[in-house]
Amino acid sequence: MLVEFLTDAQAEAYGKFADEPTRPELERFFFGLGDQWGSH
User: What's the whole-model pTM score?
Assistant: First the structure.
């Protein structure tokens, strides 16, 4: 992956959460899954 335009700190943090996601953020992301979520 091309990351030369990022600072070292940005490249290290890439693909990671800056903080623990909040419940509303998770609910927004997984909206519409309904009963599918957790049934596997």
Answer: 0.38
